[in-house]
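User: Hi! I'm working on a homework problem where we have to compare a predicted structure to a textbook description. Could you give me the structure for the chain below?
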Amino acid sequence: MTIKRQLYVVTFLIDATCGTFIFAVGRLLAEESAGLLSLGVVGAVAAAGWAIIALPAGQLSDRCGRRFTTLLGASLLLISTVGSLAFQNFRGPFLAFYFLCGVGAGASYAGLIPWLGDLDSGASRKDKTRTLMIFCFAWNLGLLGGKTVAGLLFVVNTFAPIVLAVLLSGAVLILLLRLPSDASAPESEPALPPMAVDQRLSVAFGRMCWVANIAGTCCVGIVMYLLSDLAVALDVSAPGQGLILGTMRVAVMVTYLAMHHSDFWHHRLGAIIGARILGLAGLAVVCVATGPFGLLIGLSSLGCMLGFNYFSSLYYAISGSSDCRRGRACAVVEFTLSLGVVMGTLLGGFTGAALGVRAPYQTGFVVVVVMFILELLVFLFYVAPVHAAVKKTNSRHF
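Assistant: Happy to help. Predicted structure tokens:
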């Protein structure tokens, strides 16, 4: 098995661990009637761990190597799952190890994503999007499988999903230890060549993706950490909730597949507008849903927007960066993603506690609208001038 394929397996296992762990903790708190505010704060704590580690881990990945950074993250992930299982009856230490899960996952991704980008250095655009597609498939299948199995195991025993998370995180560490050491990217390049047209546009559109990531993952935070409360209120069973979240992941993966097999979205504002409209429609459906079918349709539509955001932001980060700065470029993507989750869980938790179980999704709708306006301003003042400069440069060649 090639290194790239082994990294796909590692990606699957990491997200299966996180999906299992997050589902178990969220459902446990919901069934204990912890309330939306508590769910929001707990979710924000885990996402904050990811945000705190993202940028330092990206720098570490560039300086000390991708394998070292991924191993560090996997080790923290294993410690977090084992610690949570050992302290399951002590709420303070239990939640502290839950925070460590976010730190471990964030560090793992800071090594994994640029590692895959390094393996595709100099590859064609299709080869790069194929790698991104399979990588995204791997982590989404991990979340899908983790949450679905966690929902089934939760019925048997509330802590059975955490036992599974321990086993999965242990498997991640074993696989990484068997991989050969990678050659870390150079600290600097003595003579950087002028940016190609695609690279300049990718850097520009990457700025828009940072804003989109915050809005999109604000909704992810609400769904990931607060959906349990709405599901309980609508009498959706734990297996049913897991199935709904799994279907949402399928919608995300279908979006990845479509983006790999087409290029209409490359450096196109129209594609961004279409994705936002689809996401807003999904949130509107969730706001009025009265049963599992409404949640299924709304979250699947939202998943299409989330898939577009994530795939395009990774593509622009990798195609717009040099080898020696890829870790930092990918780390900014992960930072904006985790920042959105923190914002979503806190805002959703506070509004839900004050205004009811549907308020977090209404808040998400408003956040997406506001951030989309900010995206348009970024396009107007940053992306459009780059577009104009590229067209002017191209016209001189004819």
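For your comparison, note the following. Residues 188-194 have pLDDT under 50 and may be disordered. The two ends are 48 Å apart (CA to CA). Good luck with the assignment!
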